[in-house]
Amino acid sequence: MKHLMSPLDLSVEELDRLLDLANDIEAHPSRYSHSCEGKKLATLFYEPSTRTRLSFEAAMLNLGGSVLGFSSADSSSASKGESVSDTIRIISCYADICAMRHPKEGAPLVASMKSSIPVINAGDGGHQHPTQTLTDLLTIRSLKGRLGDFTIGLCGDLKFGRTVHSLIQALVRYPNVRFVLISPEELRLPDNVRDGVLKKSGQEFREEVRLEDAIPELDLLYMTRVQRERFFNEEDYIRMKDFYILDTEKMKLAREDMLVLHPLPRVNEISTEVDDDPRAVYFKQAQYGVYVRMALILTLLGIEV
Ligand code: CP
Q1: pTM of the entire structure?
Q2: Per residue in 41-91, pLDDT tens?
Q3: Of 50, 220, 218, 230, whose CA–CA distance to 158 is shortest?
Q4: What is the atom index within ligand 1 of the atom nearest the CA of 54?
Q5: Residues lining ligand 1, judged by CB closer than 6 Å?
Q6: Ligand 1 atom 3 nearest Cα
């Protein structure tokens, strides 16, 4: 049995196979519509979510399976003090696979150690969000035609943004990826990712504060929200929240084939006027999230179609 805690739990070859499967699901959805009949997915969400939880549920329903779960700690026995370890033992009796989001870093890993079903990390604190990374990789590979040989700008809250941490871990394994880390000083990438992952990989990277200085050279721009829920005080959040706003004026500085990605939800960091620009692919990205989660469920359950 395999769990998914980080993108590194999958080798590059396994990732390629998973993305191929997701593309096949996109092209031939009806082939897969009964492949999980009789199987159940539990979504254990101790933190709010729209895309991750509902795309997991849509994925399992598209595969002919069923879903159960909770969408907040308050509506589960966590509110009475039940531990994650006990909860997963119980869920193992009710479901075949589970996706867990938790505000505490490492909580899904603790669950996986006590679980008799595959556990998927659906986001743990400011740490990792591997299924968003699978979504991002599928989006990039499908729309750019390759993983590697590009310059990617990661912009916004690089300190608390777990999607960025997971995406960097995954992308350093591909050839010639140049990273431009665009953030205010206070929201720079944590040392363990900058030094422990980026520097160690030998890939080229640099840090910038102004988006305008970086945007002309980018093949991909990955925007992120300032993570209000991870700030210790509201004043700091208010000072930082509108540091970057991507609008049509800034898009004029970008290449004609630069793609704009965002894990969403968006607050103010991308002006809605950008949504009509063909380079804005963040809503398409959310659709890819369903295909890749279908592929992941099939892979972890060992179901071949
Ligand atoms: N991208 C993402 O994780 O969105 P949700 O918080 O809505 O799940």
Answers
A1: 0.95
A2: 999 999 999 999 999 999 999 999 999 999 999 999 999 999 999 999 999
A3: 230
A4: 8
A5: 49-52, 123, 132, 263-265
A6: 52
